[in-house]
Amino acid sequence: MELRQCALQALSVADAEEKTARTLAMYAQRATISIAPQARLQLPNGTVLPGHPEKPELKAHTAMGRRSPATPEGRAILLHAIAHIEFNAINLALDAIWRFEGMPEAFYQDWLQVAAEEAKHFGLLRAHLRKWGHDYGDYPAHQGLWTMCEKTAHDIVARMALVPRTLEARGLDATPQIQSKLQQTSAVDALEAVAILDIILREEVGHVAIGNHWYRHLCQQQDLDPEQHYSWLVAHYEAPRPRPPFNLAARSQAGFSQAELAWLQGQL
User: Which of 85, 95, 146, 153 has the fewest Cβ atoms nearer than 10 Å?
Assistant: First the structure.
């Protein structure tokens, strides 16, 4: 078994249960699985990435309805949307493992950890949905995260800048607000969801930190100024600029510099 080839195979799997099982199995075998950093992997003919189940139906981000947690149905739609984000995040981590050759072995181990934790998050959310009479695939979803993944497929620096430390970092800001709205309902299912989101938020800080680490590693390697180059990447790829309120404590813990936090708040 070789990690990067296994990651590509898992990424191409459409069935959500099988994808998560393969990802968790790779992580369980991380101490013995080999890594070939220099291998240039090729997609088999006809392979479509990422593998995705027939449901949920995928729609444009602008076509998605609002997800109010005030009703049981609204909470199910909200948690389904978060589950889809976590499912996409598994794909994003697996894609980073197979696509980018020539990185230190620690890079691949880091993203394997991220993939496994995202698989755990998806499993927690799916179990929650099932407990309350729903399942993954019951509602439409959007592919915003994967769209940026495709746009940065040719540039590992852009990928590290605009996926983990931009799009995924938005979750650090949004999660406490979602938890607050869920807590206001006092419903049992809502409070159970808050506890799941506690786990996700704690581990997502680590995922964003991994993105920050490898972004800065690559900038240093290529003699790029991290803050200046990030601003250029945001403009070049038309990445969404995060909107306040910001979870500054979580972002700081995830490795954002004071200059970056000031930029986010429009102080620069």
Answer: 153
Write down the residue that tokens 């959500």 correspond to. 16
Q: Which residues pair with 2 in a beta bridge?
A: 34
Name which residue leads in pLDDT, 240 or 132: 132
In whole angstroms, what is the distance from residue 52 CA to residue 56 CA?
A: 9
Q: CA 57 to CA 266: how far, in whole Å?
A: 37
Residue with tokens 């980073």: 96
Cβ 175 vs Cβ 197: under 8 Å: yes
Give the domain range for residue 230.
3-36+67-264
| Residue 27 domain-assigned (yes or no) | yes
How much is the average pLDDT of 247-260? 95
Residues 6+ apart with CB under 8 A from 25: none
Contact 214, 260 (CB under 8 A): no
179 burial level (CB within 10 Å; 0-12, 13-18, 19+): buried
User: How many domains would you assign to the chain?
Assistant: 1
Token representation of residue 129: 């949905």
Residue 42 lies in a domain: no
Q: Would residue 131 count as lying in a domain?
A: yes
Q: Is residue 59 part of a domain?
A: no
Q: With 80 as the cut, is the pLDDT of residue 63 above it?
A: no
Sorting pLDDT into bands at 50, 70 and 90, what band is 107? very high
Torsion from C-alpha of 205, 209, 210, 216, nearest 10 degrees: 160
Greatest C-alpha distance within the chain: 53
Collapsing DSSP states into helix, strand and coil, what is residue 2? strand
The string of DSSP codes covering 77-98 is HHHHHHHHHHHHHHHHHHHHHH
- Global pTM value: 0.95
Q: Are 164 and 96 in contact (CB under 8 A)?
A: no
